[in-house]
Design a protein that fits this description.
seven-stranded antiparallel sheet, 1 helix, mainly beta, SH3 type barrels, about 120 residues, single chain
């Protein structure tokens, strides 16, 4: 958790996160270490709401996904798909390295997908 102390705002950051192992996940749930987008850090609970990414580009065929092209700002290794429908709260303990930041305009598109997904 020490790595979080110097960071003021985490929204729009992309981090490598250790999600539950494959044998602990079910169906299409994402597992193992992967990039995740931070939506909100809940300091009081030591939880972070994230959206996992996948480099399986065919996943873009599903509803509530968004293509994220790798660039100098997000510093992703590969073009990726944000799996908006799989947003989840996870412990700070699962975060191990910041990758980069998501462009504000793309982040806005993700927020719109969340609003549509949750019908708000």
């Amino acid at each position: 958790m020490e790595r979080w102390q110097n960071l003021k705002s985490k929204k729009r950051e992309i981090w490598y996160v250790r999600l539950p192992k494959k044998e602990e996940s079910m169906g299409h749930e994402q597992s193992n270490a992967r990039p995740c987008l931070i939506l909100k850090y809940i300091k009081e609970n030591q939880l972070v709401i994230v959206i996992p990414f996948t480099s399986t580009l065919e996943s873009n065929k599903f509803l509530y996904t968004l293509m994220i092209k790798k660039d100098a700002i997000n510093k992703l290794e590969n073009d990726s798909i944000a799996l908006v429908d799989q947003l989840k709260s996870i412990s700070l303990e699962r975060f191990f390295r910041k990758i980069g930041d998501l462009d504000k305009e793309i982040f806005g598109s993700i927020i719109e997908l969340i609003r549509d997904l949750l019908n708000i």
